[in-house]
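Standup notes
- DV: blocked on the single-chain target, sequence here:
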Amino acid sequence: GGMGEVYRAKDTRLDREVAIKVLPERLANDADALARFEREAKAVAALSHPNILAIHDVGHEHGISFVVTELLEGETLRERLHRSAISWRQAVEITVSVADGLSAAHAKGVIHRDLKPENIFITTAGHVKILDFGLARMDTAPPSSTHAAESTPTITLATRPGAILGTLNYMSPEQVRGLRTDGRSDIFSLGCVVYEMIAGRRAFTGDTAADTMTAILKEEPPGITDARTGIRPELERVIIRCLEKKPEQRF
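- DV (later): unblocked, structure below
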């Protein structure tokens, strides 16, 4: 990925296979990249949940920063979606697991801020894991209906100064506007993921980044039943509530 090279390795002390994520040499002297790398390690280390990738160790050796995590066998949700359509029942099962993981993170004050199919992993045994807390933020303030501007600088994405934090198609309206986020922003992103699993298309998209931002801020996604028959109206109501523009109107 853009923020690390991941290797399969053997923990000789505990006789187990692990994954080692190494900050690439080209980013070793990048202060923003190093801060993001360390933030991910600290965020995940604060969590212990079966639906969140487990971290075993973190360190810096001979100029190389690394994180040791559990080794996962399987595929990302993005890869799964590329293979074939997912039944609505499967989508609900995946969503419940992700929601459980997010709930545990939010209880610890950890906001993911980059939830998307690429950051959801389905193991060969069928377990669901949330990955990549590289954009996570530790939130010590309780949720409120008032959103102040972010006091911390945004991470530069794709080398573009001032780029907005996150992945555009799955950003909440408050992320698009550059406002402070809390756990309800992750709920919006989860709604986008669930919508895509069931409808087979993204909830918000456009020909340009500006068009997509406008859709997130101003437009409602097409009805799910318009794209796929047999969807229970209760499920659609849950998804639509996740995608409310105002955080206080979401779960």
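- Follow-up: Confidence is low (pLDDT under 50) at residues 141-163.
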